[in-house]
Amino acid sequence: MAHAHHSPVYLYWLPREAAKSFASEYKQEPRVRVCHADELQYLFLHKGFPEIPIESTYAKFSQNLVRNWVVFADKGKPEIPKCTQLNVKDNGENWFQLDDDTNLTTILKHIIRFWDDCINEIYLSLPILHH
Predict the structure, then answer these.
(1) What is the pLDDT of residue 73?
(2) pTM exceeds 0.70 for this model
C-alpha cells in the first residue's frame, strides 16, 4: 500500500455469486457465497472454473468486467458510466460494487470503520511505533 501515497487506489467488492466459487471449500456457517479471487473466472479461463457460455447470465457481466479492467489498465483509472464523479482522495468508504449494475457503494463503511478502530487501538498500544 506504500504505492497508494502517490497513486490512486480503487477498491472493489464482488457480491455477485458465480457458477463456481472458492467459497465452496469452506464449510462454516453462515455459508460464504463469494470469496477472494472469484472475479478471476470472469476475466480468464482457469482450471477448475467452468467456461462461461455466451448465452449464460454470467456472459454480459464477464464482458463488462473485462472491458472495465482493460480500460483501467489503459487509462490508469476506471471509467464506469455511473461513477464519473469519483473522488480518489476519499476516506476509503467508496467501493466499486461489481455486479450486473456496477456502481459505487458505501455498504462496507461500518466494516472499514471497525478495522480502522482496531488498527488504531493496536497502534496506540505499541509505544515504540508512534514516537
Answers:
(1) 92
(2) yes
CA 38 to chain centre: 10
d(CA 116, CA 7): 21
Question: How many residues in the chain?
Answer: 131
Dihedral angle computed from the Cα positions of residues 113, 11, 28 and 37, in that order, rounded to the nearest 10 degrees: -160
Count of beta carbons in the 10 Å neighbourhood of residue 61: 20
- Name the burial class of residue 18, with classes exposed (0-12), middle (13-18) and buried (19+) by CB atoms within 10 angstroms of its CB: buried
DSSP strand pairing (12-13 vs 103-105): unpaired
Residues of the chain with pLDDT below 70 are 1-6, 82-91, 127-131
Q: Provide CB contacts within 8 A for 117, sequence distance 6+.
A: none
The three cell numbers of residue 113 are 470503520
In angstroms, the CA 125 to CA 118 distance is 11
